[in-house]
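[job 0417] fold request received: DegT/DnrJ/EryC1/StrS aminotransferase
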Amino acid sequence: MLRAAGVGSGDEVIVPAYGNAEVAEDVVLAGAMPVFADIDPLTYCLSPEAVDAVVTARTAAVVAVHRFGNQADVAGLRRVGQRHGLLVLEQGELDAPCDGLPQRRAYATYLNGRLTGVITPAENAAHSHQYVVRVPGNGRPDRDAFARAVRARGVDCHVPVKTPLHRTPKFWRDIELPETERAADETLALPVDASLSRRELQRIVSACNALGGLLQPAF
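[job 0417] inference complete; emitting structure tokens
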């Protein structure tokens, strides 16, 4: 899409650093330079305000990535694009087919109503692929300790984004993206597969709630 739109050498394309490297790599393949902007803490998608702050004379496009069933603020990004004459492209999971999606949404609603000790996702998230919570604490060690304790109680879980792209050797940038870095430190994906039994759902709630209050934010 970037090459078809005439994006290439000398251009900059704004992308999120929270997520996999696919989008940033596509920018490089088009001959352009990926520029990272911060995310909205509720959706994990690009923040229009953060995008606006990193636009330069070389910026040609913005790639909005939908994440964890949350929709990027495409309208807000398009307003930024119109102001600066930028192309706004979308990449994500919202329109992808997903078997058992209604069941996953029902399970997500169940977990949202019963989990304590973690910050649950927004009610309007589709949860088509991952049910991502935040573990409040002092950063990555707390989230990782929580994950180990939950796994020890028989609940599979994983860290959805271990390292933001701007902190990886390939895409290293000497910049600060506080919401991106906080999300990478705090997020944890819990199972929400349609194949889960009611007992397994209850085990997730029991395992997480047993740790509630143990990992508190530092003041």
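[job 0417] notes: The first strand starts at residue 12 and ends at 16. The two ends are 46 Å apart (CA to CA).
[job 0417] exit 0
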